[in-house]
Amino acid sequence: MGLSFHSNKESLYLQVYDHYKNLIMEHRLPAGSRMPSLRKCAAELKLSRTTIENAYLQLAADGYIIARAQSGYYVTDIAAQDPVSPVSRHSNLPPVKYDFASNGVDHESFRFDLWQRYLKSSLRQSERLLSYGEPQGEADLRQVLADYIRQRRNVNCSADDIVIGAGMQSLLNILCPLIRDKKTVSFPNASFVQGSTIFADYGFDVRYRNKDCDVIYVSPAHMTKWGEIMPVSRRMELVHHASENGSLIIEDDYENEFVYFQRPTPSLFNLAGGHGVVYIGSFSRLLLPSIRLSFMVLPPSLSRQYAAVAERYSQTASKVEQIALCQFIRDGHLTSQTKKLKKLYAQKLKELKNVVQNIFGENCTIQTGAAGTSLALTVPYTRTGLELKKEARMNGLSILILEESADTITLLLSCSSIATDEFEPACRLLKSNLI
Amino acid sequence: MGLSFHSNKESLYLQVYDHYKNLIMEHRLPAGSRMPSLRKCAAELKLSRTTIENAYLQLAADGYIIARAQSGYYVTDIAAQDPVSPVSRHSNLPPVKYDFASNGVDHESFRFDLWQRYLKSSLRQSERLLSYGEPQGEADLRQVLADYIRQRRNVNCSADDIVIGAGMQSLLNILCPLIRDKKTVSFPNASFVQGSTIFADYGFDVRYRNKDCDVIYVSPAHMTKWGEIMPVSRRMELVHHASENGSLIIEDDYENEFVYFQRPTPSLFNLAGGHGVVYIGSFSRLLLPSIRLSFMVLPPSLSRQYAAVAERYSQTASKVEQIALCQFIRDGHLTSQTKKLKKLYAQKLKELKNVVQNIFGENCTIQTGAAGTSLALTVPYTRTGLELKKEARMNGLSILILEESADTITLLLSCSSIATDEFEPACRLLKSNLI
């Protein structure tokens, strides 16, 4: 073959990938035809077998070719299909162009290369990966987390009081059976579906904003979806009231990292001196949402109760990811990533507010808080929210509806998944759907 | 520096790693001293920065050096500590030399390099990883799983009926609330702690071997820990009885891949025509135990109920690992890994039985089944099991006690984590502890 590949090593396999992808999409390698063997292809292109294999694996991952055991790779019928990405091939909807609804992580901010290196380093600890993980979570990660939250949130605890799990629900599935003597639980509002679902599953009576419940679930840096935070005075009040009533507080410290426009507020765990508060932290807004890793800090009495049953619950979080995260935090990357994201989101949110104000003008009301990555926008609208949502989606816009009345609608607009220079076209498109 | 590194590319960073590890352990780089910067070290050794960085990351992962933000890497006090591996540094016990208790995966059998390539390929799908996963599990993995279990276990279902989760307990945490009208659950015996814990947490009345319960949990290829399997006649009987009584069967198909000495038996799900049976599968015995990935197949009525609440439960399994596994199965590696392990374990178990027979002679009773990776060994012993366990552990032996009477003890010996040529020394060491 008369091909020349640039010797930029990083992307050599991608050049091979592109070469074959084009041949396939242009029907020059028709569906069903067999790909050259790795050896033959490597010899022809004068590249290493590994490079070819990486290219083939990527082609297979993206649906261009398929492996048949003991036979080789074959071209799929992808070229005959419609030209959307292979992942969304099953749906009839156009791809999402602007995603206002996502609370994912900013596309530019996550260093995949860095995280990949930590995962690779973790995979090298083969002995450790050949056994099941510790039920409570890997000991070294728990130690690192204890240090981290002591420094950043004044949460003083030992690694023994920390339980790791694959997301907040996994932790509540361990906590709820421990507190089965309690009957009622209060949530800030109905939007905390994930938490309230688990409590309801265990037979708790779920209420809203009721400080006399046996369990009080709060998210002090995320009181509303548009980033209102709980002032210190109310934090103190809550801690005292709960202590007098013997209620347990569950402090979900979600997005505490993104409190921009005032000084960071102390954690309830710290204000309560570590008693009567379960502290929950997670990394979905700091790393990848697709990494399922959360942790809870149990107060002394619950920690003792947990220790007695710990062996009965298997760990849910991936051990590879736990090991990688441990080293990632040790090396200071979580701290720098948090700093970077905080700065970025503060700027983006401010800019989004400006753009919305300019485009929607006097007819709109904007609510913002001191934290988070979203603002709430209320505009006149007379049709149903469902209609708006469908129509917007057909136009490539993903939106989240907070509230609707007969003549207005309130949307939650997140700045995290849209690039700053796309705020304007995205808002204009949104406006055209609202008419 | 007058060093020469072999140009075998794979291990270049490991050579750098070893070089520094030795300097540190020989106190030639004392605790607290700063490591040369990446740039400087790369220039001196005439190697790439990436190679040096990989070596440093590995040194840090193993506790030889530690990163300080914006400053560089520093040597830890590891050389002053006792010479056990950094991971087990906190414990006073000697390292485990022979692990009879583990149901991990055979050390030689898992291809880390291959799995690493799939994880890397998965990490390249950055757009996909920047959002939360589908609550039910990634659609393409569910499709691949549906195809896989149809081919291998005659379980006919659609991808819509499959729910993915981080381990069996995560799945039961979704299933139990769906079947809250049921009150009693039967398990084969008391060793199924992980399953029975979750049912008890939701208020179920847990019983053993009681076929008149509302829910019947069985593991047909793992009726006892030493691999007894449920014969087809009893499977048929169970399915009929459950159908007449309106009981729900939960079929945990654990280790069905390791049925050696007879033909593979049909799944209950298949025998029941897909009604009244929840099928649970997992990969901990086939891939890495540290990968938390299980799935359940819901029968039509439960699948509809689940669909109505699916959005309330967030996915627990890592998205990166889901994407990697999907492609790994598509490319036929799960099939070949299963085949390889089945052959290997059948040989190892047979050999372990021979060695045990030779060493323990007439004084012992050996129980084996038609499946699994373990045998049960009963020998005369008059002290307590706890004493034996402690003493064996001090001698570097990890064992699992199944039963004890006044003058005998029954141990479960797993062949999976010990190499075949170590069966003899391991059994001799065990015997010396039993005297």
Automatic annotation (TrEMBL), chains A, B:
Pfam assignment, any one: Aminotran_1_2
A GO molecular-function descriptor: DNA binding
Domain HTH gntR-type residues, every copy: 10-78
Keyword annotations of the record: Aminotransferase, DNA-binding, Pyridoxal phosphate, Transcription, Transcription regulation, Transferase
PROSITE patterns: HTH_GNTR
Classification via PANTHER family: HTH-TYPE TRANSCRIPTIONAL REGULATORY PROTEIN GABR
Homology family: In the C-terminal section; belongs to the class-I pyridoxal-phosphate-dependent aminotransferase family.
Name of the molecule in the record: Transcriptional regulators containing a DNA-binding HTH domain and an aminotransferase domain (MocR family) and their eukaryotic orthologs
Species: Blautia obeum A2-162
